[in-house]
Every structure is written in C-alpha cells, then in structure tokens.
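Working notes for the structural subgroup meeting. M.R. asked for a predicted model of this chain before we commit to crystallization trials. I am recording the input and output together here so anyone reviewing the notebook later can reproduce the run.

Input as submitted:
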Amino acid sequence: MRKFWFIYLAKAVVLFPGGFGTLDELFEILTLIQTRKMRKRIPVILYGSKYWDDIVNFDALVRYGTISTDDLKLFHRTDSLDETYAIVTRELIAHSIATPGPVL
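Returned structure, recorded in token form:
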C-alpha cells in the first residue's frame, strides 16, 4: 500500500541506479501502469542507460513473451539531464497540468 500511495501522489518518477529497493519500486510502478491499476499517465524515466541495460534485459523479457513490445513504451531510458527535463515537462503539460486560462 505504501508503494501505491507513493506513485499515486507522484507526477513523474526518475529512477537512478540503485539496489533491490530501487528495482522493487521500478517493477511495482511498471506493474501498476501495465495492469492499468493506475490510470493516470506518469512519465517513468530510467536515468543511466548502461546501468539499466546491464541490470534488466527488457528485450529478453519481450523475447520470452513475459512482457509485450508495447510495455517498452511504459518508460524512457536516458543519460541526459536535458532529455529527462524535456520528457517530464512534455508529459506534465500534456497530462497533468491544467491549461492556463486567460489572465483577467
């Protein structure tokens, strides 16, 4: 339940290289999104591509049929702070921030 509320209140998640706790939270978040238990759109960014590619072989999960190719679209991998910022702001503007009205 703690992880559900953690992600429920978040607008974006950026995961940096970490241990079992980080992996646990990553897979919990992706599972909630994949199974549509969480309906809001939230950007999930894995920062440090080499680390994530070494630790989790997402392509193998697709090959073995345990996730679909579309599931790879549930997150972004990057090594760039600028790209991280661009993804978060783009997604927040598109899905989480109300369109500002006219200034009166």
